[in-house]
């Protein structure tokens, strides 16, 4: 074994031992989950050895990128030490419950998939994207990553045991095996425990405060807020647990994040077309639409919107209210008028219509949203 191989082995072994101490995971194939766990946390799967999946989806911080990155967390810093993305890393929590990307004939809307634009059908596809993305983990290609896997005795043993002794003879199959393993880990209760105060309330194990109860009532009242239209409890009858998203795509009028653009090199005139950036979509009616996110852990996974343009959850609520309340004409974070929508033509004004809210009702809504925080992350609440 070379010194480099020995180094990789030591890194992975240490990572595995520390990971196992976090939680006991339940899955159909624990060996596959264990492999995915190691891969998810291994920085050696990036070009310079500085990043893992956990870097941008930190298990200790709601599975988001909790680093500042010089942009107040709005975008992620790449393995090269200087590239910054143009979108905010979505939480990996509860991502396994998103249906595969598809066109729903009943609602006549696109649903599901991974990433803000659904460009990957499922978790396997999502896991395979960042390693070879030049501004993320930066590996030259799949072959370069598979070579790193082969330099690690633990991975060689695990891959051949799970996927066959010839798995490394086909680069694409070996890469796919890696993504399957990571997806298996991301499909465990580590990522979707359903143990928030809200879940405990449903089981009769927690009593909502008066403030939280008012927020709950407002949230589910279409006569008041219309929140539950998009952030509905279950997208299908057979879904396990309530994820507070219908997995559809909508344009809610989010403005550009000009501060992020000034740092990442994107032109100030650049437009993020959202769903239209998905290679499978060409219809202009989908311009500027983004996937409705889960509200699980929403109080601890800021900044908000697909581009991290808002720092505070209260700002997001004020942004929604400004469509119905003339008093909400200023962004509370900078005391300036709200910037225009990045793609104004397709803003979903119908579903944004609701009754205007008082400051007290907005505070109550936020109090309820805080109850959607997983138990392990409650210490992160401000």
Low-confidence blocks of residues: 1-28
Order of helices and strands: HHHEEHHHHHHHEHEHEEHH
Second CATH tier, the architecture of the largest domain: Orthogonal Bundle
User: What is the spatial order of strands in the main beta sheet?
Assistant: 1-2
For the largest beta-sheet, the strand count, sense and barrel status come to: 2 strands, antiparallel
Total count of helical runs of at least 4 residues: 14
What is the CATH fold-level name of the largest domain? Answer: Cytochrome Bc1 Complex, Chain D, domain 2
Could you name the CATH class of the largest domain? Mainly Alpha
Quickly give the structural class.
mainly alpha
User: What count of structural domains?
Assistant: 2
Specify the helix fraction band: 25-40%
Radius of gyration: 21 Å
Q: CATH H level of the largest domain: which superfamily?
A: Cytochrome c-like domain
Q: What is the overall silhouette?
A: globular
Mean pLDDT: 92
Q: How would the blueprint of this fold be written?
A:
Blueprint: H1 3-20, H2 30-40, H3 53-56, E1 102-104, E2 109-111, H4 123-128, H5 142-150, H6 153-163, H7 171-186, H8 197-202, H9 210-219, H10 227-230, E3 249-250, H11 258-264, E4 290-291, H12 313-321, E5 330-331, E6 336-337, H13 349-352, H14 359-370
Antiparallel strand pairs: 1-2, 3-4, 5-6
